[in-house]
């Protein structure tokens, strides 16, 4: 380990040690999301390269790994009740994500440029998520 | 498939998911909640598997991935509801693995159903 590398690790240790409890929880949460997100994307890439059915790799692109990470963190820190609430709350996000994927497929029927389709799908995801939140608020008020 | 390629894709997927969570927290409220649920894994998976491919092949790849992801995401909704229900009955340590195993079984069954009907390739 050279001097620059040692300094880098010392800085990392100092930053982590200087965190209060809430910051540490946030850091752990983001780190787990990072690891899960990276692992799922690599798994999809490897499966898409190796499997004869590319759609099967797509199934794993929707693996609820981030939800699982959020639920286990909530369960570990705050118990079953919060974990169950986190799981139920993630349904709204999943509805928006489903709209995004559906939009990608629909846009690609008319426009044969994948990255433009993805950008349009992300805009549709945002609109659909806003709509779901608005509908939920309306139903709660009623 | 190279180690650097895999590492770059790992960083892309991880950063996209972490960034959406950080932006969600910074924004807070309703908009923050929406950003926290950004389909970062799907977007990263599409980018990482199609980048560098010729246009027609990239479109085919995106369509195939999206068809599979659509199956996975519909099953995700059922999985999240089942996870919430199972946790209240058997706790998160048992409930979460049961729900994830159920997701795998149902997603694969739906995938094979779609493949049998010629919709999945």
How would you describe this protein?
The complex is a heterodimer of chains A (142) and B (121). By secondary structure, chain A is mainly alpha-helical. Helix content of chain A is 89%, strand content 0%. Chain A contains 6 helices and no strands. Chain A has helices spanning 3-17, 21-50, 54-61, 65-78, 80-110, 114-141. Chain A is extended. The mean pLDDT of chain A is 84. Chain B is built from 5 helices and no strands. Chain B has helices at residues 3-27, 29-36, 40-50, 55-90, 92-116. Chain B is mostly helical and 121 residues long. Chain B is 87% helix and 0% strand. The radius of gyration of chain B is 17 Å and the shape is globular. The relative contact order of chain B is 0.08. The longest helix of chain B is centred in the middle third of the chain and has 36 residues, at 55-90. In chain B, α4 packs antiparallel against α5 (92-116). The model of chain B has no long low-confidence stretch (mean pLDDT 87). Chains A and B meet through α2, α3, α4, α5 and α6 of A and α1, α2, α3, α4 and α5 of B.
What does the secondary structure layout of this molecule look like, with pairings?
The complex is a heterodimer of chains A (142) and B (121).
Chain A: H1 3-17, H2 21-50, H3 54-61, H4 65-78, H5 80-110, H6 114-141
Helix pairs in contact in A: 2-3, 2-4, 4-5, 5-6
Chain B: H1 3-27, H2 29-36, H3 40-50, H4 55-90, H5 92-116
User: Which range does the strand content of chain A fall in?
Assistant: under 5%
SSE topology string of chain B: HHHHH
How would you sum up the major sheet of chain A? Answer: none
Report the principal-axis shape of chain A.
Answer: extended
Helical percentage of chain A: over 70%
The secondary structure category of chain B is mainly alpha
Largest interface summary:
A-B, 74 and 77 residues
Mean pLDDT reading of chain A: 84
Give the topology string of chain A: H per helix, E per strand: HHHHHH
Helix vs. strand class of chain A: mainly alpha
Rg over C-alpha atoms of chain A, rounded to the nearest angstrom: 20 Å
> What average pLDDT do the residues of chain B reach?
87
**Percentage of helical residues of chain B?**
over 70%
Q: How much of the sequence of chain B is in beta strands?
A: under 5%
């Amino acid at each position: 380990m050279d001097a620059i590398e040692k300094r880098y690790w010392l800085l990392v240790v100092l930053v982590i040690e200087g965190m209060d409890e809430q910051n540490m929880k946030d850091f752990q949460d983001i780190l787990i999301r990072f690891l899960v997100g990276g692992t799922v994307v690599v798994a999809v890439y490897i499966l898409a390269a190796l499997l004869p059915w590319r759609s099967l790799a797509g199934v794993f692109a929707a693996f609820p790994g981030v939800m699982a990470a959020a639920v286990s963190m909530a369960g570990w820190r705050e118990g079953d009740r919060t974990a169950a609430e986190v799981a139920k709350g993630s349904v709204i996000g999943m509805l928006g994500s489903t709209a995004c994927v559906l939009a990608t497929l629909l846009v690609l029927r008319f426009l044969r440029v994948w990255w433009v389709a993805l950008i349009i799908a992300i805009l549709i995801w945002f609109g659909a998520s806003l709509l779901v939140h608005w509908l939920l608020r309306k139903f709660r008020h009623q | 498939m190279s180690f650097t390629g895999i590492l770059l894709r790992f960083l892309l997927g991880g950063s996209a998911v972490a960034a959406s969570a950080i932006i969600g927290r910074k924004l807070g409220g309703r908009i923050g909640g929406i950003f926290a649920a950004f389909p970062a894994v799907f977007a990263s998976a599409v980018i990482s598997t199609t980048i560098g491919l010729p246009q027609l092949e990239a479109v085919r790849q995106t369509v195939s991935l999206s068809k599979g992801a659509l199956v996975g995401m519909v099953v995700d909704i059922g999985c999240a509801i089942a996870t919430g229900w199972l946790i209240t009955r058997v706790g998160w340590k048992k409930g979460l693995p049961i729900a994830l195993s159920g997701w795998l079984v149902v997603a694969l069954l739906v995938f094979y159903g779609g493949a049998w009907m010629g919709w999945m390739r």
